[in-house]
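Quick check before the chapter quiz. The format below is the same one you will see on the exam, so make sure you can read both the input and the output lines.
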Amino acid sequence: MAKVNLTDRIEVPSERKLTDAGQMHVPCKFARTGTQLYTAGQLGLKDKEPNEIIEVHREEADVFDDDSMATFRSAPVTIGHPAEQVTAANAKELQVGSLEGMPTRDEDTLGGVLVLTAQEAIDVLEDGTQELSAGYTCDIEDVDGKLYQRNIRANHIAIVAKGRAGSSCRISDEALEAQDSAIAAKAAQEEAEKAEAKKLEVEAEAKAKKKAKQEKRAEDLKSEDSAELTDALTLVDELKIEVADANTTIEALKVELADAKVAASEGVIERCAAIENARLISDMRDLGDKSIAEIELLVVQDQMPDKDFSGKSEAFVSAMFEILVDALDGETPMGKLLKKANLDDAKPAPKKVDKVAAARQASIDRNKKA
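Here is the expected output.
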């Protein structure tokens, strides 16, 4: 990759001096060797996720290369990284100072003295900004899977207003935050790897203990004498007897279940008969959830509204129901209505004996005698 735009960030020293002309001289460092962390988006890598953290190595030979250092001579100073490269055409708008002459090497860093000529730049530093960020282009070379910066060419040195508004500030902050996030992620990964290693160690110890216990148990089983084996065989015989007894019990339960089914079917027949008689006597419907006793009571109360059946036994109510069934003699509720209509239209006829009332009275008399 050729001429990739990148930035580097170093804290601004506190040794600042104001000249009589109102300029501020600031000793500074703005580039260093070592490994830098960037996002794939900043490097223009299209085959990776834009936010993936990528290590880029900057070797001493590249940082302190004569041609590279020469590009920093009198480099313009800006507030934040501008959206475009600083040129003669836009320097009046963007430049707030410059690097004094050639940069110098200080161990693994590149530095010099900034001469700030714009009050806004001085104010930014006085307000607490503590970082500089070099803006430059470079080539990215892939060497055995590692990325290296080559042909570093300076464009400007930016006073980075960390955390303030503006796209350039945000771009710069993202680089720093990405670096911090990567360091934290790497530490977290190392902790996770340690925890996983510890977990595997504990699991291995547990497996070893379990294996030792199983081997000991196998030895114990081998050393068991014939008496223990005899006891085991006796236990097997006892279990066989218990199984036989259980089978006998199961057969008995099968017989009881068959009897219960017969009883249940008989109960169903009786209940169906009660429902059918209730329909014929009183034209009652929806009796599916009622017991036989409840059906008989409903029918008797319907047919004998003047009689109080509270406190009467089920046997008494059942007897009344049977009387009504006997008196029905196959006549349906509709037949009763038609018959009544015919009687109302006919001439007076001799009084007919009420069989139901007579049967009810006979039952009451029998109960009284009893």
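If your answer matched, good. The radius of gyration is 53 Å.
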